[in-house]
Specification:
Elements: H1 8-21, H2 24-31, H3 35-49, E1 54-56, E2 61-63, H4 65-90, E3 96-102, H5 104-111, H6 115-121, E4 125-131, E5 145-149, E6 158-165, E7 167-171, H7 173-179, H8 185-188, E8 195-196, E9 204-209, E10 212-217, E11 223-224, H9 227-235, E12 241-244, H10 245-254, E13 258-259, E14 270-276, H11 285-297
Parallel strand pairs: 3-4, 3-5, 8-11
Antiparallel strand pairs: 1-2, 5-14, 6-14, 7-12, 7-13, 9-10
Helix pairs in contact: 1-2, 1-3, 1-4, 2-3
Length: 306
């Protein structure tokens, strides 16, 4: 086999650092090289690939479509190389940082209680937890694992199913005492129904009347941008909300919230997944450890069922 005198990993590393830092000079500082040397590495890479990866200007760098594709793949290749070296040097023990994105409600209710045990099992792993109900781009946000609620749209992400959750329409005892408890969907129309401004939320609440599905419009004096804010509004007696059982089961058991119209509940189940980039068989050990821990600890999801 002929010897190939090309340091491809070095070129990839230089290119990725330039993109991550936003300039050749900033990338060079991280690499301990001169800007001209880094520029030559990237230029050599472009010449070898016979394609332009970045548009250069005095003010900023802009990736070409080919550059964006090569950057994303390079990040994965370099991560795999780092993981291979770590495993070779220290066995297969997971180590390194894992960035997890989850909704506020999932994070506080389900994720946080699992963190202490996970860190005991994997002391060389560092968790970076970001809670937001905004759907993040895993590549842009440098996220390893994200928790997604509801049906997943087509994408390049790989999904691991964690559990399914039912929903219920609930109100606080104080609200029901003041305004009364609706016995039929028609009576619910006279009440304040708190909706969600989350962009993937559905505009109506599904119900079943005489075996036929109907949609109850969500009309009220306030909307919430995340599930935890919606829950707090319902607890404060503002109106009715339709929330996932995993989110409100402790409130129901404690009597802080009361389910209504359960005979009209369609008992629909919503899937909850952990999503990530890459291939299942080529996951870094640190990411696989997080996924395995979530799957094992959330397997008994009786609290999320109707």
């Amino acid at each position: 086999m002929p010897r190939i005198d090309v340091n491809r990993s070095g070129e990839m590393e230089a290119f990725v650092q330039v993109v991550d830092r936003g300039s050749f000079s900033a990338g060079a500082r991280v690499l301990g090289m001169t800007p001209s040397a880094v520029s030559k590495l990237v230029a050599r890479l472009e010449a070898r690939l016979a394609t332009q990866l970045v548009h250069r200007s005095t003010r900023k760098l802009q990736l070409t479509p080919e550059g964006q594709n090569f950057y994303e793949r390079s990040v994965r290749v370099l991560a795999d190389m780092d993981e291979a070296e770590r495993c070779a040097a220290a066995g297969a023990a997971p180590r390194g940082r894992v960035r997890i994105n989850a909704s506020i409600s999932f994070g506080h209710l389900l994720l946080m209680p699992l963190v202490p045990r996970f860190l005991e099992l994997h002391p060389q792993v560092t968790l970076d937890i970001v809670l937001t109900d905004r759907v993040v781009d895993l590549m842009d946000e440098r996220t390893d694992v994200a928790i997604r609620w509801g049906p997943l749209p087509p994408s390049d992400l790989v999904a691991r199913h964690l559990f399914d959750t039912g929903q219920a329409i609930v109100a606080s005892p104080a609200y029901l005492e003041r305004y009364g408890t609706p016995r039929t969907p028609q009576e619910l129309e006279a009440h304040n129904r708190i909706g969600s401004s989350y962009h993937r939320s559905v505009p109506d609440w599904p119900l079943v009347v005489d075996g036929r599905p109907i949609d109850m419009p969500v009309v009220g004096s306030v909307r919430a941008g995340d599930g935890e804010t919606l829950r707090r509004l319902v607890l404060e007696g503002v109106g009715f909300g339709r929330l996932s059982l995993y989110h409100i089961q402790p409130d129901i058991e404690a009597g802080r919230l009361v389910p209504v119209l359960e005979e009209f509940n369609p008992r629909d189940m919503t899937p909850v997944h952990a999503v990530y980039l890459g291939k299942p068989g080529r996951l870094p050990a640190r990411v696989r450890a997080v996924l395995d821990h979530l799957s094992a600890q959330l397997a008994d999801n009786s609290w999320a069922r109707p």
